[in-house]
Design brief:
18% helix; elongated; alpha+beta; 7 strands
Length: 141
């Protein structure tokens, strides 16, 4: 009988600890779990370049840029390339989701045209040359 009572006490203590741990997790800020993410919302033609609308979140105090690169992938002509950046001081880093528009300038004289299929990559780039959170999408502009 005593062994059974001890087992119930240990099991009860384990349940209390598990519930307390779950309560701590449930009340923890959700923001910390979603920082430094990027989603590509829309890719559109902007003259000879492109406009990429993104939703992003980042940690406070981060010192990085948001970079977008594009490559035209479905044409018999020479491929078009483009790049754009949002500098550190233009990003709002507070764990919340924010939207931004990155304008990509075409490389050299080759631009993008209506109907081109493009592959877009958006990522963070820091002062140490570290690149992370790559997000890719293809779109027809």
């Amino acid at each position: 009988m005593k062994a059974s009572r001890i087992r119930r006490g240990v099991a009860g203590a384990a349940v209390v600890v598990a519930l307390a741990g779950a309560g701590v997790l449930a009340t923890a800020p959700m923001a910390a779990a979603k920082a430094n993410l990027i989603a590509i919302d829309k890719v559109s033609l902007d003259g000879a370049g492109l406009r990429v609308n993104v939703t992003y979140s980042c940690d406070p105090g981060m010192n990085h840029q948001l970079v977008a690169n594009a490559e035209e992938i479905t044409s018999s002509k020479l491929k078009g390339y483009g790049a754009g950046t949002i500098k550190v001081d233009k990003l709002v880093c507070d764990y919340a989701d924010h939207t931004a528009e990155v304008r990509l300038k075409p490389a050299a004289t080759l631009g993008f045209e209506k109907g081109d299929k493009v592959k877009v990559t958006v990522f963070y780039f820091d002062d140490d040359g570290f690149r992370y959170a790559d997000t890719k999408a293809t779109a027809t502009v």
